[in-house]
Amino acid sequence: MVKRFAQVWADRNTASLEKLHEAGLTQHMIEGESLAQLHAKLEPLAQEWVAKAGTKGVDGQAALDFYRAELDAVAEEFGLSRN
């Protein structure tokens, strides 16, 4: 089911981006140092979530690590950027 969802998402994302490009939108990808800075700024939010999950008896770090690994695997399988 996850793979099917990912494929539908990728297809719709591609179609949406094509329409936006046709309408004159220029897409800029965040890469390199800018992407690293964005990840660094967002990491405290992830750690806050991990802490909140821990108060509910969930190993938040394990859950987050699993989720990120799944994102990486699906992105690789479908040739998508996870960023």
From TrEMBL:
The scientific name of the source species is: Celeribacter baekdonensis
Which InterPro entries does the record match to this protein? TRAP_DctP_sf (IPR038404)
What domain of life?
A: Bacteria
The UniProt entry's GO CC annotations, sorted and at most eight, read: cell envelope
Q: What is this protein called?
A: Uncharacterized protein
Q: Where in the cell is it found?
A: Cell envelope
